[in-house]
Amino acid sequence: MIFGIGVDIVGVARIAQWERFSDQKLEKIFSDDELADCMQQHIRNWEKVAARFAAKEAAYKALSQTLQGLGLTANTMSFLVFCKHICIKTNDWGPHLEIDWLALEQKLHCKLPELTTHLSLSHEKEMAVACVIIEKQ
Q1: SS3 137
Q2: Residue 115 main-chain phi, psi, to 5 deg
């Protein structure tokens, strides 16, 4: 059963402006692994960064919908806190979400059911888009 769907689209140029930010500032949103995955020959690939940012936004929207569907609307979490507990990893099949559900439960002060996430990313020169679906197992 689908509990939440989130979609986000981001302009790559907007995210590329973050080039002037320090890694410490970027690490408020992205993990070390995500930042490393977005490097190509020592240059940051801003299309990949934008797609991962869109994925985090889409996941946040999907989780908000999920929490509302579970009747947990009183529990809120900031986007930056959420970012610390989600990571977009890449394997041979492409990108996927890794969510620290236990940490989220502790932040939300509730027990969540077994949830599965699905992620789709795309980027093309100027735009990056992500879709996240959260379903109950």
Answers
A1: coil
A2: -120, 145
pLDDT digits (tens, 9 = 90+) for 108-136: 888 999 999 999 999 988 999 999 999 98
Q: 2-136: which CATH number, 3.90.470.20, 3.40.50.2000, 3.10.129.10, 3.40.50.2300?
A: 3.90.470.20
* CB burial readout 109-124, b (16+ within 10 A) else e: eeebeebebebebebe
Cα(85)–Cα(31) distance, integer angstroms: 9
Residue by residue, DSSP assigns 63-123 as HHHHHHHTT-TT----HHHHHTTEEEEEETTEEEEEE-HHHHHHHHTSPPPPEEEEEEEEE
Each domain of the chain, given as residue ranges in start order, spans 2-136
- Rounded CA gap, 29 and 34, in Å? 10
